[in-house]
Amino acid sequence: MKQLFTLLALCFGLVTLAAQDLPVTLNGYQFTLKKMAGVTPVENQNKSGTCWVYSANSFFESELIRLGKTPVNLSEMYTVRAGYLERAENYVRRQGSAAFGQGAETHDVLKIVREYGLMPYSAYSGFPAGQDKPVHGEMEAVLKAMVDALVKMPDGKLSKQWMKAYAGALDGYMGAPPAKFTVDGKEYTPQSYAQSLGINLDNYVALTSYNHHDFYKPFVLEVADNWSNGLFYNLPIDELVQTADNAVENGYTIVWASDVSEKTFSAKEGLAVWPQTTWDDMSAEEKGGWFKTPLKEKWVTQEERQTEFDQLTNTDDHGMHITGYVTDQNGTKYYIVKNSWGVVHPDMKGYLYISQPYFRCKTMSMLVHKDAIPAAIRKKISF
Questions:
Q1: Cα 129 to Cα 31: distance, rounded to the nearest angstrom
Q2: How does pLDDT run across 75-90, given as a tens digit for each residue?
């Protein structure tokens, strides 16, 4: 199967990461590879808050590989553009009382794909001429100024042309996507292309774990990027971790949203851990050595997770893609996480090893295939 993935990747211009390409040593850490799913190349979201798309597209690209289909390179910016259209309508309808920024949640990708379809990168890059990575600060500021002006209704009511004018500004930065495009000699629309990939969006579910809502039921997760008020099914943290383990053990991957603001999350070091000693209580030696050798980590309770969330010390910072797992010399499990910041640590090639204690404490939410959820847990959820 690995040889097949490699052949397909070469045929279609996608160079995937082989499992043995990831390091087995990082300073004093000794890792043993346990599972690694098929993946497409690491990308770079650059100066944009678009991790929600990069992680989701990477996930669906791996899903195609898992299903034995041809690897593809999906256009992130096509989905980003559609997201800005949806976000503007929501913001104006709510008269400015809604989030308007670059971030979103993975369920927004599902909604956008249902309505707008998908495009390959070859049909739409979404970058101005001479640019190969997103730079969205000015664009966001201009678009936000437009919707803020609109909700003030300077003429007493909104014109029928406001969305056309807004979309024109958006396309001035990103370019207008084509209505039709050709892939391998066949013409598609975005909707027909999405259908041709054979991914059933109804098979995917968003999960979280907080006890201020009932377990096994959906609720609107109260984070700023959930501007569209999407629902997340609530599991106890032990069962959320069991679901993640079951997924990676059986070849599924995961879209992972997490707090990455902690000092012990470091793309530079290629690691994230959750020490028993808090950062403020660490000695200078401990602060300089956590990434050099495994240390004792804290296994947080459901109540401790809730406290982190309630005190805003656990925040929805970043979306990434879990593609497998390794263990260290002490038997601690680390999820293999594909990031979208390009290559930071040269040996990790854009990936990180995230310890299970860090995952347990800092996971905000995740998206998985329903079949990746253990059967006993699935029976408790009413999809």
A1: 43
A2: 999 999 999 999 999 9
Q: At what angle do helices 137-151 and 76-93 cross, to 10 degrees?
A: 20
Mutual angle of helices 51-66 and 76-93, in 10-degree steps: 130
Residue 111 in domain: yes
User: Which residue's entry shows tokens 């909707």?
Assistant: 191
Pairing of strands 351-355, 271-272: parallel
Q: What is the per-residue pLDDT for 382?
A: 80
In the block, residue with structure tokens 């390794």: 326
70, two tokens:
């041809």
Supply the CATH number for residue 107's domain: 3.90.70.10
162 assigned to some structural domain: yes
What DSSP string describes 326-378?
EE-TT--EEEEEE-SB--SSTTTTTEEEEEHHHHHHHEEEEEEEGGGS-HHHH
Q: Residue 202 has which token pair?
A: 């109804």
C-alpha distances in Å from residue 339, one per residue of 5, 42, 47, 151, 325: 21, 7, 14, 37, 15
CB atoms within 10 A of CB 155: 7
Identify the domain containing residue 88 by its residue range.
2-378
How many domains is the chain built from?
Answer: 1
Tell me whether strands 186-188 and 181-183 are parallel, antiparallel or unpaired: antiparallel
**pTM for the full predicted model:** 0.94
Q: What is the CA radius of gyration of the chain?
A: 21
